Amino acid sequence: MSHNTFGHLFRVTTFGESHGVALGCVVDGCPPGIAIEAADIQAELDRRKPGQSRFTTQRREPDQVRILSGVFADDRTGGVQLTTGTPIALEIENTDQRSKDYSEIRDSYRPGHADYAYDAKYGIRDYRGGGRSSARETAARVAAGAIARRVLPADIVIRAALVQMGPHAVDRSRWDWDEVARNPFFCPDAETAKFYEEYLDGIRKDGSSIGAVIEVVAEGVPPGLGAPIYGKLDADLAAAMMSINAVKGVEIGDGFASAALRGEENADEMRSGNAGAPTFLANHAGGVLGGISTGQPLICRFAVKPTSSILTPRMSVTTNNRDVDLVTKGRHDPCVGIRAVPVAEAMMACVLADHYLRHRGQVGTRDRE
């Protein structure tokens, strides 16, 4: 299987399967001299790990990370662990896999999963939780994102939230970033979060699942990141988000809603601002124009499909092309979009770290005249 690496200067390669011994990543291109401890990475992984509420899979994984390489501490660093500029390898052990839950679907393709596609391509598939197609792979991305945050300037703030579950969107007039950490849905609207509890309980008890929309925002992004043609910031961001398991659609700024606007409505008008930079009066573009950041908040949303593993019987076929009605047992998220929130932040951080290093490599640190 190829294409397990993303990024150009800040490069991340993930490895491992859902029910394998471990999973992890290798981060290449991280500059030297950056302070990083396992606890910094663990804090992000703890936000994504399963089993933290009844609204996510009950698989109990501590997701404890180990740094295997790429850091060093001695008297010359004051005992502080710093990156050396060499590849940083991170490992997360699997400790609570129950492969027997999947024995009944060994010879059947789960509808909505990658089972058939993997088998058609490789002639072999890991049916235990989906192997590489499992959302568990995203733990490695979150670990890499924790390092990417350290590469970026400290004034770049990356936050994400669940803004829609099924057809039920949040009320943006009640948006509160602090609320995201107070409920199990990463929801910025306290009232809607309370509604989601009863709503998702009903779906879970029905043995079904539901989709969601995640919004990720990066503030403090300087203007100039990205390249005009084949290295567009928004194109790389869209590709990164689309690569997350179960994501089926991505938009930047107003996205598809911009198709309903007139030109005068969609234009992000400007007026003179401080330090020679303009002040934008709107941000329909989501912080990117011509593939290059404008200095406005970078805004991206993506849609996550319902978890395909459900207890409701679904029609499928076996590997021998015989019809079968299939029920997927095991421990699954009734809304996998919930735990996609920290993954979204991680992918935003990785893309921005890559473009930050690319930008520095091309134009240096020259000041705007």
UniProtKB/TrEMBL annotation:
Catalytic activity, as annotated: 5-O-(1-carboxyvinyl)-3-phosphoshikimate = chorismate + phosphate
Family matches, as Pfam families: Chorismate_synt (PF01264)
Binding site for FMN: 132-134, 245-246, 290, 305-309, 331
GO molecular function: chorismate synthase activity; FMN binding
Any single biological process term in GO: amino acid biosynthetic process
Positions bound to NADP(+): 48, 54
Pathway: Metabolic intermediate biosynthesis; chorismate biosynthesis; chorismate from D-erythrose 4-phosphate and phosphoenolpyruvate: step 7/7
Root EC class: lyase
InterPro entries hit by this protein: Chorismate_synth, Chorismate_synth_AroC_sf, Chorismate_synthase_CS
Cofactor(s) demanded: FMNH2
GO CC annotation: cytosol
Assigned keywords, A-Z: Amino-acid biosynthesis, Aromatic amino acid biosynthesis, FAD, Flavoprotein, FMN, Lyase, NADP, Plasmid
Cofactor binding comment, as recorded: Reduced FMN (FMNH(2)).
The EC number(s) this enzyme carries: 4.2.3.5
NCBIfam families, A to Z: aroC, PRK05382.1
Reported function: This reaction introduces a second double bond into the aromatic ring system.
PANTHER family cross-referenced by the UniProt entry: CHORISMATE SYNTHASE
Subunit: Homotetramer.
Family: Belongs to the chorismate synthase family.
Protein name per the record: Chorismate synthase
